[in-house]
Amino acid sequence: MRLICALLTLLVILGAGLAMAESVDLPLPSVQAENSFNEFDPPSTNKNARNLVDYQMNVIRAGIVILGLVIFLWVWSAPGRPSSGARKMQTTILLLLAMASFASYYQFFQYSHVRGFATSDNFHYYLGSKYFPELGYFGIYECSLYALTERGLSTTGSAETPVRNLRTMEPLTTSEVVTLGTDCPSRFSHERWQAFGDEVQYFSHKWPLHIRKATWLDHGYHPPPAWTLVGGALGQKLNVNHSHNWLARIDRILILFTLLGILWAFGLKTACLVALIWGTGTLWRYTWVGDAFLRHLWWISAIWGVIALRRGRNTLAGSALTLSALFRIFPGALGLGYLLHATREGFQKKNIPPRSILFMTGAMATLLIVTLGAAWFSGHGFSVYQEFAMKLSRFTDAPISNDIGLSTLAEWLFPSSETLSNLTQGVLIGLFIALFWRAMARIADWEAAAAGVLLIPILVSPANYYFSFFAIAALVATQRPRMGVILIVTAVLWNINGLLLYQQYSEFNWASVISVISCFALILELGQPLKALKKSESDTEATAMTQARP
């Protein structure tokens, strides 16, 4: 174990040194080649790609997760009740592993986006939510370009440079989009228009020409109204010119707080396992959504929902899981997992458990309050939901090359046969649902909710940077260590895949293979009878808590 500690320390030192040595333009998902119309295409492969700090940090994270696999195999296979000295050693090593994983995600706390908060992602999420009443889902480009033009500032470099028309998702020239924005000042109050122009200028001033051109070819602003409510309300209180460092670090604080919540509810091993899988995740690494404005809000809400279920706070659980779904839609799979478990339990007992009623009360109350609040804040009333549906429809129709899941896998396997692709998906979805339903008979309600994330890659294919939901499944490893092993092996394979296929589209196809196989392995393991497990003293205390009290 001393060797493992030494290796872990060496990886941390190397990673910190790399992060401090160089600050470069990382391959942000929304910064594409000038002629690309695909928001999520990775940058073109080049012969020097493996010299990028991003690639080298991937190597460090791969080393950490492989060491993590060794450490957890040692912890879980320890015979008998560990001695006091052994427990202290386990605790020390697990804490070091968790801290190294968390730090590695954030490039060892170096502000590695060379332009700080002024990334294309933050431009969309921060400005799009703060000025949503005036911009809606379709006005961010036309109003931003008009504001810059009005101030005599450079926009895209040429009046003929293409800019996406967010209403049709087709490219127009810069001059045509600026013309669409001629009524923008009338949508704002004078003070708001000046503030908007100042903040657009903050971003534009920090962008080199190639990022500027790429940003206007993105897909605009498209978070759900509930996220707009939270992001916009916070944005109203701050100004990017004065608060940019704090804005970028909000997620760091919230995620750390969430990991501490897992420690409180599930014990040290589970908290460290979640930190390991989340912190070393190559699919959602810092390059994609690190230091982004409230981008992990759905993940944080989902985990606190499972924590609430674990502690028997069913009303709060319903509220938190509903919030997660409202923030990003696909996390509704956790609620679906809970409802499938409650349905099966209801059939068996021929009544509705009181805790399920409390859960639904919290869910429905939150749904009502947030739906009304988001409609009011948007300034568009209930029509904001129609606008969101239109934006979502147009966005999903766009070709995306970094989706991961069963549908991506089936289309890759049968590119010339839609029939075979659909048949493969149908058969595997049916089989997975059957296995999931079978597993519901053997697990607790909080486990069903956490396991709901396994439905996501099977039923839908989210973009790669949302796959941090896999870390939520690690909560189930509290009582099923073999699930923890499967999850860490999955993380190792993703990391190796990401290194071998760095900046290649095929990375996401093979990531889909790994994801689907992992989901089936996990649901099969979840369906096995729960065996008595030997736990450390801290985990025994967490496991002894009642998982459901009305």
State the gist of this model.
With 550 residues, this protein is mainly alpha-helical. It is built from 27 helices and 2 strands. The two termini are 44 Å apart.
What would you note in describing this structure?
The structure is a single chain. The protein has 550 residues and is an all-alpha fold. The protein folds into two domains: 369 residues, no CATH class; 107 residues, no CATH class. Helices cover 66% and strands 1% of the residues. The chain has 27 helices and two strands. Strands 1-2 form a two-stranded antiparallel ribbon. The protein is globular. It starts with a helix and ends in a 7-residue tail after the last helix. The C terminus is likely disordered.
